Amino acid sequence: MIKKDKIRFNKLKELGCIACRKKGKHTEPVIHHIRKNTGLSLRPSNDDTIPLCPMHHNMGNQSIHLNKKVFESLFGTELELLKETNMEIIKLERTDIFYGGIKE
What we know:
Layout: H1 3-15, H2 18-21, E1 30-33, E2 49-52, H3 54-59, H4 68-75, H5 78-99
Antiparallel strand pairs: 1-2
Helix pairs in contact: 1-5
């Protein structure tokens, strides 16, 4: 894995599950790769990733892998969540620049 991917993944872990955040919770995430224009054997880009806890990733009844329609009706599409995630990463980066990583 290249350095920029490690940095992104660390930011995703810092954010926590994007679905749980909508409920005001912070949970430890795993990295979910969004599959767009890729086949089953092709790995999606590490830029197309969102943080999801195991329950929202592939273990719960509302998970993206087990019940995508329900997941998307509750939390938004993968692309909408990717956009939200990228905006949250920008906010984290601004906090790091202005406050040296100190968060309120």
